[in-house]
Design a protein that fits this description.
globular; two-stranded antiparallel sheet; alpha+beta; Hypothetical upf0131 protein ytfp; 2 helices; 137 residues
Length: 137
């Protein structure tokens, strides 16, 4: 059984954090239901409630234990639960197959206003955390 996750930002192919998921299976492009929008957190996007379909990359792992280990690691990378929550969402693949995938959805109170100083505070905090995390890997 495949375990899917949906990426729309830094974890996508070519993204700054993609190297963390390099050993997963790329399933192709996918899109969410029209219930989200992307906001900017500075150097990273944030998917929040809205009325748009978000396109992104879909990855999978066949082994449940490896998948759970990877997802727990990504929770730390994505700063769950402070910055994001991990949710199971419906995603439609390019071949129109519908799947359920794990995705990181931003905590909306941090991204209510694109120009909010809270976003820059979050962005600075995340950048500092990423630098510290990268140095320890």
């Amino acid at each position: 059984m495949k375990n899917y996750f949906f990426t729309y930002g830094t974890l996508q192919r070519g993204g700054a954090l993609h190297n963390y998921i390099i050993d997963t299976n790329y399933e192709g492009r996918g899109r969410t239901e029209p219930v989200y929008e992307l906001r900017s957190g500075g150097d990273f996007p944030a998917m929040v409630s809205g009325s748009n379909k978000i396109e992104g990359d879909v990855f999978s792992l066949d082994n449940e234990n490896n998948f759970e280990e990877l997802i727990r690691f990504l929770d730390r990378v994505e700063n769950v639960p402070y910055l994001y929550t991990r949710q199971t969402i419906p995603v439609t693949l390019q071949d129109e197959q519908s799947i359920l995938a794990q995705a990181f959805v931003a905590n909306e109170h941090l991204f209510q206003n694109k120009n909010s100083s809270r976003i820059s505070e979050v962005s600075e905090r995340v950048q500092t955390w990423l630098v510290d995390r990268t140095a320890s890997v």
